[in-house]
Amino acid sequence: MSGAHLVTRALSRAGVKTVFSLSGNQIMPIYDACIDAGIRIVHVRHEAAAVHMADAWAQLTGEIGVALLTAAPGITNGLSPLYSARMAESPVLVLSGDSPMSADGTGPFQELAQTEITKPLVKRALRPTRAAELDRDVTEAIECALSGRPGPVHVALPFDLLSQDVQDSDAPGPAAPRRQSTALAPQAAQAIAQRVGQAKRPLVLVGPMLNASRAPGLLARARQALQAPVIPMESPRGLRDPSLGTFASCLADADLVLLLGKPLDFTVAHGKTPAFHAQAGVIVVDPEAFLLERAVKGLGARLREHAQADADDALQALCEAAAQASSPRADWLARVDAAIASRQLVAGTGGLPDAAQPLPQAICGAVQQALDQADEPILICDGGEFGQWAQAFCQAPTRVINGVSGAIGGALCYAIAASLARPDATIFTLMGDGTVGFHLSEFETAAREGARFVAVVGNDARWNAEHVIQMREYGADRLYGCQLSAAARYDQAAQALGAHGGYADRLADVAGVIDAALHSGKPACLDIRMDGQAAPSFASTGVAAQGPH
């Protein structure tokens, strides 16, 4: 067998049946090996799309998501979504073709020190040196991606190793990859649970891997056991996350905050006042030592406990330790719930109800009605101003957003992966007219692969996030580089690529075009002209803006 067959053998042993890829010379041996392994290749139009799809696949299935890219320009095209996957805590394996190892230093086609480039973006980057060890190397990379704080890994595969004949041995290969866990020590669990139990207004903040879509059962169990709100944070807007309503006001009043796998960073205002109460104690549990060191330096005497452990294992341990440690806090739980649910817009925001074109909130309302009627709804939200309206006013049990990285443009790719992972789901993906342009050609991929979703494009003919910033900081006479063509028809472009298209410039027509899209049997693109508005604001928290997207 070839080295490429060892790679696909490792993938099959890990349960991989779908790989997202764009073809290239150096990965043709793996394409060939995928036929024998029965692995489906979803062939995309841009390498970045393949990584975005692998990211969404990982989030929605809990499995390793796999992107297969060609060498040099192929892997470098995938760098931005690698960063997004890292910040989203998604277990993703990126396999890239590479120039022959035997030609290193001689100037072969597409020679590039790939792992030196990807190293800052992934948990591990490696370039195997022996064809016979490719199975083991890929298996260990998958284990790394799944373990600790999940995240992407990169394996650069020299062409000569993939093509080399490897003697097939009767000896068993490596075991199927398993997640390696770092447990919270029982004494630490008891001490932390006791502190949470003694607090009057405790909060538990968790990161993306424990969000409501990926760990709903554990979140509910922890809330009940700890008698404390457990709040996932995965937005680049941090405490101004529109899906959290006025939660920031509760954080400012908490007397104990447990950061459980949630880094002390800009999204929580670095733990400083007024975001945190000056006398609030902080506990930090994290799988990564450098984040514990950051907390020790940044929090000083306010740090009550810190421990190294995986977030999900630690939360389960705290549930067990809290059996006799926590007293009911019905009033505090209700107060936090009400703050998160709050959607009362600050006066002067949200636009006028008699605007000539639909307002973002109204468009989101029409989408929510369709989500409410679906048996298996999935909501996907991109970044930008319209993305924030979507995150505030649309909800579903399963949700994927642009994430802490603040990147925009991936939502269309996420929707394709979501449909392939869950073909019976009703999927809505909401994005602006700027973000849809990043991967518009993937409507062809969606149509070819049989994906089904409704992409709602809120079209205000501008990059509205930047428009809002320039208006605020520099004034209307210095708007620059924000306008997009009002004549552009994204629905018609998608139709030309094989998708269903719909258009509306009146609110009365929005429900109708949504219904037509749902019954089209195709991936759909709805160009909805809207009155562009700044992202929703629900309260003045005294916390500075945490990010532009």
Automatic annotation (TrEMBL):
Gene Ontology annotations of biological process type: isoleucine biosynthetic process; L-valine biosynthetic process
Cofactors demanded by this protein: thiamine diphosphate
Thiamine pyrophosphate enzyme TPP-binding domain: residues covered: 382-528
Enzyme Commission (EC) number: 2.2.1.6
A Pfam family that the UniProt record links to this protein: TPP_enzyme_N
Keyword flag Transferase: yes
Domain (Thiamine pyrophosphate enzyme N-terminal TPP-binding) ranges: 1-116
InterPro entries in alphabetical order: DHS-like_NAD/FAD-binding_dom, THDP-binding, Thiamin_PyroP_enz_cen_dom, Thiamin_PyroP_enz_TPP-bd_dom, TPP_enz, TPP_enzyme_TPP-bd
Domain Thiamine pyrophosphate enzyme central: 190-317
Gene3D superfamilies referenced in this protein's UniProt entry, alphabetically: 3.40.50.970, TPP-binding domain
Record keywords, A-Z: Thiamine pyrophosphate, Transferase
One Gene Ontology MF term: thiamine pyrophosphate binding
Family recorded in the similarity comment: Belongs to the TPP enzyme family.
PANTHER family: 2-HYDROXYACYL-COA LYASE 2 (PTHR18968:SF166), THIAMINE PYROPHOSPHATE ENZYMES (PTHR18968)
Listed name of the protein: Acetolactate synthase large subunit
